[in-house]
Amino acid sequence: xxxxxxxxxxxxxxxxxxxxxxxxxxxxxxxxxxxxxxxxxxxxxxxxxxxxxxxxxxxxxxxxxxxxxxxxxxxxxxxxxxxxxxxxxxxxxxxxxxxxxxxxxxxxxxxxxxxxxxxxxxxxxxxxxxxxxxxxxxxxxxxxxxxxxxx
Length: 151
Ligand SMILES: Nc1ncnc2c1ncn2[C@@H]1O[C@H](COP(=O)(O)OP(=O)(O)OP(=O)(O)O)[C@@H](O)[C@H]1O
Ligand SMILES: [Mg+2]
Known about the structure:
This protein is an alpha/beta fold.
């Protein structure tokens, strides 16, 4: 099922992220896509705030940032500079899935094969007609809101 949100400011995109994060169970995975500047980090910042994690910045140079101080751990990935899917497995992707946190991955289309479609919430953000317009298409797999080590 796909739900579409239209936002008109960075704060509104953060609010969509916050609303979705409030519904997540431990082990949830959000795969973000959308061009440069679409609002993937803004969405993540909102989601993080719902989990009690703040000061989110893009992990472009490290692939993953861990926020462990909130109600659930948040693992914020950015695959923009990824050389291949192997690199994601090498840094311990399977372990991250089992750590009972929330995974949010920017540039998820750089490593599409690592996501289990039934367990993943896909959020694609596109830029609309006006400079601050964004369209967020949220498509959730069957188990995406109830993961808790569903595998
Ligand atoms: N409706 C909106 N939602 C989100 N961001 C918006 C919106 N309108 C304008 N912006 C601006 O767009 C930019 C979004 O930046 P952000 O870093 O979140 O994008 P990103 O998708 O993470 O980019 P990158 O691919 O570089 O990681 C910010 O400068 C923000 O102020
Ligand atoms: Mg970003």
